[in-house]
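thread: overnight batch results

M.L. [08:02]
morning all. the overnight job finished for the chain we discussed friday. pasting input first so we're all looking at the same thing
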Amino acid sequence: MKNVIIRFVEISDLEDLVRLCEQHAHFERSDYNPKNKKQKLGEHLFSDTPSLYCLVVERLGQLIGFTTFMKQFSTWDSDFYLYMDCLFLTEESRGYGIGKQLLDKIKKEAIRNQCGQIQWQTPNFNKRAIKFYNRIGAISKKKERFFIRV
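M.L. [08:03]
and the structure it wrote out:
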């Protein structure tokens, strides 16, 4: 796929980012409520001390994918790592090496932030992503993810 640009998100991208987040949620068979998402994402991405970072994939003026990540600390390793919260590409943009390009950019951010590793999760039914992650040398650690609303 030609004419692909990977760059950090800009404020003008927020509406499209929310749309991509919704597509990602549906792909992962999850509910999604877009209410206040644009505002909340904007606050976390563009504050003086951002709690979230986002790279977007642009092709011919349209956003076709994104990844979000944040720096976190592991008590087990006593070190920092980058946690990749999302990596999503629209259906028509998969299979062209863009996911690998995104991960390469995140690796550079991990190095820049003095993080020794990148961690992430994917649903066990996302076989295509699991195959991709295995192909690039990622190691899987089986765990159940729980959450509780407060």
